[in-house]
Amino acid sequence: MVLDLSVSRHTYIEDCEVCCTPVEISYTVQDDALASFDAKTLE
Fold first, then answer.
1. What is the pTM of this model?
2. Is 39 within 8 Å of 27 (Cβ atoms)?
3. pLDDT tens, 1-43?
4. Are 25 and 14 in contact (CB under 8 A)?
5. Cβ atoms of residues 23 and 15 within 8 Å
6. Are 15 and 21 in contact (CB under 8 A)?
7. In the chain, what are the domain boundaries?
8. Torsion of CA 26, 42, 19, 28, to 10 degrees
9. Can you spell out the DSSP letters for 10-34?
10. Rounded CA gap, 27 and 34, in Å?
11. In this structure, what DSSP letter does residue 7 have?
């Protein structure tokens, strides 16, 4: 998974590469570094 660290806060849905289940990805960036990351299935 590649994250765009030029965006300070981002949430999007991506299908799992293994089982194709939709996963909601949320992350925040602070000082050009990943500050938080969360991934949860949408079932």
1. 0.81
2. no
3. 889 999 899 999 999 999 999 999 999 999 989 999 999 999 7
4. yes
5. yes
6. yes
7. 9-41
8. 0
9. EEEEEE-TTT--EEEEEEEEETTEE
10. 7
11. S
